[in-house]
Amino acid sequence: MFAALGGLIAGFTALCVAELVAAAVRPEAGPVTAVGGAVIDRTPPAVKDFAVRNFGTDDKLVLQLGILVLLAVFAMAVGLLALRYRWTGAAAVLVFGVVGSVAAGGRPEGRPTDALPSAVGALVAAGVLYLLAGRLSPVTGPPPAAGETDDEETADGEPADGEQGAFDRRGFVIAATAAAAASAGAGLLGRRLQASQLAGVSAARGDITLPAPASPAPAIPGGADLGIRGLSSFTTPNKDFYRVDTALVVPRVDADRWRLRIHGKGVSRPVTLSFQDLLGRELVERDITLTCVSNQVGGPYVGTARWIGVRLATLLAEAGVKPPSKGGPADQIVARSVDGMTIGTPVEEVMDGRDALLAVGMNGEPLPFDHGFPVRMVVPGLYGYVSACKWIQEIELTTFDAYDAYWVKRDWSREAPIKTQSRIDTPRPFAAPKPGTVPVAGVAWAQHRGIARVEVRVDGGEWHTARLAAEAGRDTWRQWVWEWPATTGHHTLEVRATDRTGATQTDKRVGTVPDGATGWHSVVVDVT
């Protein structure tokens, strides 16, 4: 038990010391974050889809807890090993440092200094484990009696297998307590230093005042929000807007130091822009619904916000870029984030006249850190993994044949227009409404095409046309409601939508991989 405890304390030391060093390097270099990022990078699409589906936005927390549990098991095993082989146990701790260092330095956005937190933490932890294991060695007793022989020792001077005896319990407790206290202090100091750094960036964001847009968004029609209880509001508040990305630590970018570089194939005039450069340009404000490709049928990863930003097509044109339809050599935009994410977007769609933006604001305020501050891409009509790069810092023009972005390398499609979908928000699954008129309501979306019709049916019967809310634009979702004359019993409600091209969503149920889920959303209720 004491040996395992010694291993746990050594592991705790490694994490705390690494936390302190990461404060001097950058938070993303911490071992748990680095290893977690490496795990995410190597996670098969099916596993990633399972995590998002079952854990939602808590998937990163679950991953971090899993890493800590595995680390604890490893630490206890190393502690037991060090009881018999001190040097071997201490060396095993260094394996932790190697794994963390390689994970940190091997990520796309990795820097050479990112290896330091894991390396220093493991080195100190190895010393702590060696010290604690020494306190667990049996105390030397009186000389053996005549005819008896000393127990043999191992080559490194440690007691041989099976040797029994008392150990320096008091010395172990003192050493363990001191190590734990010092480690906790180091970890707390590291956290406070990181918090102080983040507070400065947060304060700077709070001081930003977005200019009034030169092209404000049209007023939302009065009938766009039906105001039905249980129905998603037309505009999704920032705090409720979904977040699906691979960042275990949300980047806190200093807007004053931020730069965006535009270069690559077909760029005759490379551009580098600062945040103030963007704010000084003509700003556009639009209501746009975003959808994540990980959204299952009826899922929550869709929301509408009022975005403000600069037209991306204008910036590209100023850099000399032409779409393929006009002779341009590049058909793909590769957007790179400060966290190493790469997202590939079709040039043609960005420059076809839609409101593709480099967004700087969301619902009347600077972008929240979770949603890409200081700048992110927003392209209506395309799933986020091919359009919505957060924390963007580079745009490279290239071709789809020449480069596969992050998710394409993981078996997702190169191009992914959003599919026509609809969802029942109320009544909820397994609800028990009373007989009589029951409003069945929800949202439907087909960004950049618009919703023309929504239909509902009960128990596989005939389809009934729902009443649509006022349309705020073809790039936003649309609320709908059907007044159901509910009768007592067990019922299944289904919904389908038709977009403005005349295409009705298919009933064929497929998963999210490789380019988005399809099928009709259904809800089972008991009318009593």
Order of strands in the sheet with the most strands? 2-1-10-5-6
Please report the total strand number as a whole number: 18
Report the order of strands and helices: HHHHHHHEEHEEHEEHEEEEEEEEEEEE
Low-confidence stretches: 146-164
Question: Could you tell me the strand content as a percent range?
Answer: 15-25%
Question: How large is the radius of gyration?
Answer: 29 Å
Instruction: Determine the N-to-C terminus distance.
Output: 58 Å
Taking the sheet with the most strands, its summary is: 5 strands, mixed
Secondary-structure content class: alpha+beta
Can you give the mean pLDDT? Answer: 91
- Overall, the morphology is globular
Number of helices: 10
Helicity, as a percent range = 25-40%
Q: Any overview of this molecule?
A:
By secondary structure, this protein is of the alpha+beta class. It contains ten helices and 18 strands. The chain has helices spanning 2-25, 31-41, 45-55, 59-84, 86-106, 116-135, 169-206, 275-279, 312-318, 347-350; strands at 259-264, 271-274, 284-291, 302-311, 332-337, 342-346, 357-362, 365-366, 376-378, 392-398, 421-426, 436-445, 451-458, 464-465, 467-468, 478-486, 489-499, 521-527. The longest helix has 38 residues, at 169-206. The chain is globular. The relative contact order is 0.11.
